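Model it.
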Amino acid sequence: MHITVTPIFAALLGLIFFFLSLRTSLVRRRAKVSLGDGGNTELQMAIRAHGNFIEYVPISLLLMAFLEMRTVSIYVIIVLGVMLVAGRCCHAIGISRANASFRLRQIGAVLSLLVLLIASLWLLYSYLI
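Modeled.
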């Protein structure tokens, strides 16, 4: 019942979260807005990229860790982790820039939701069999 793969993805996602947090802080400072978004579009995008990340990543990592504890194949965990990292990167880029591809945001959202769905169903299945 060792968790060996999920922490690697947690670390990678932690670094992405760090950069999203830093970006939000820098944009907030440049816009001179201490609370809220002050109507600043760039700050709104940074806040949403940061917020959306934290809305999806913790539960996804938790599900992955639980699957790993259930001794699901390490390759399943790797695929889910790669999908999550790729999805969160695509989404962050797609939502963070006014001229960014809306397609990236869609791809990121779909990948992130697929991780949630697959991991949740797989975990339920592992307890029902």
